[in-house]
Records
---
Amino acid sequence: MARSKTRLERHPRIDPRPIDQHMTLTQLVDQTFLAYNAARLREACQLFSRRMLADDVTVGFSLTGAMTPAGLGMAAIIPLIEHGFIDWMVSTGANLYHDTHFGIGLNMHVGSPFANDVELRNQGIVRIYDIIFDYTVLLETDAFFRQVIAAPEFQRPMGTAEFHYRVGAYVRERERVLGLQRRSILAAAHEYGVPIFTSSPGDSSIGMNVAAMALQDNKLVFDVSRDVNETAAIVLAAKESGGKSGLLMIGGGSPKNFVLQTEPQIQEVLGIAEKGHDYYLQITDARADTGGLSGATPGEAVSWGKVDPAALPDTVVCYLDGTVGLPILTAYAVANRPARTPKRLYDRRDELMTTLKRRFQEALDKK
């Protein structure tokens, strides 16, 4: 009995104060998110703000699900970029395509998931669950991308980070001309030097427009090998400089794998000694028991070398809709952590790649 009491004394009592009009978001999370996935979200907020945002941590961010159509780019991701809380990013092309709508002055609207889709089609309206927008939004965004990639600077192979950085300059200029501010992730990432990669560049309307332009002899080709190596170079530099690598993952899918596979690329493929990422934070609705990567746990990632075994206490998975978790996580971080100086990793890509090549050659020489 005494042993049981001693053990319980190490754990806080569930005794929250009543919620009232004076309670801040930080107090709400810290004092009332006490159990189940609310508790995991509290742990995520605290891990991100108190440890992952230390100056020596390089934070990678992966994004899946239709987050930007729901306004999460403007509401949450751009503030994270502006505060220096995201250092590099992997996104689905779809999120970046829909992000562009807002940056070039197009609109999306609140709708209903119960609308008649045949009627919507007849009216020229497109639906993403409970978001609706005019079909011309797609056509105008397609026209914008085709005009941009016809420019001379795009007439060669390039990695997706360079592609998004260059496109971001055009979106930022369109924002300026239209008198818009803080509308596009691409524009913000361009301004703050945050490299954005797409793990499956053909799997979106952006890639579809690049493919269409190829039929007219446009020379733009995505160099996916450069993407694999640039992301690995970012992580290697973070670790070998004496710092740490942390990952914030919204959803799963290919972007989740792409940020995580940096460590197997370093260790397994390039033969460079490393231990894995130091922080792992995921908000997902995917289950682990289906065997898919989206729901794979941090423990499973340890078995692949993706996560440092010693870092398992610093891993959190919230089984929660990203449209709920990401805004709360962002608000908590902005309220509790001073802005960091942007690392501007895009500007350092060539330097980091040079180091990766050297370390790979050293590993080969030792064999």
---
Amino acid sequence: MVSAADRVTAALRQDVLDGVLPPGSRIPEAVLAQRYGTSRVPVREAVRALAAEGFLELRPHAGASVAQVPVDDLADLYAVRSVAEGITAARCARRVAAGQGDELVAELTRIVDAGFAALEEDRPALGAALNTEFHASIASLSQARSMAVLLRRVGEQIQWAYSTTVPQQGRRAWTEHRRIVTAIASGDEARASAAMEKHIEASRRSFRGAR
């Protein structure tokens, strides 16, 4: 059973990642308690947890505020992400080569199709959510548990930066996603890893160009 503190932590983290609570904004406990329909105790626990993750800042006598996006760390985050996601894409291709990939490829294809549909319908929030789902699904389907945990933390930091500059992944990104799925479906680990690493590098360049 999910505790009230865990529920508030997840909701507050998502509001920060989505830019609903922008960097620098003060977030009094009373306001958060009202927003999430709970008492101040779960809010206090959630604030401490997200401060430890770097999303919030706690100052004596000033309360909590949303931290500034760690833009200076992005080069390192992208380097970690490129290696980790290259591994997960290769692991997915390995599963395909072993005859375990039908449902895997079908699920990734479904997400990519939905991403292109979101573009056509001009639904940026849905597109951003699908982008996150695509990368999270590759990590999960790869069955590389340690990489999935690492990528969740790294991906959240990058998503946070993107929410302030590039709220929707464009046609370039979804075209690259399609190529990644095709590479995974081929069962060629090196091809899948290379396609993913090329996509991460393109994303890094697009972020730098949007700043």
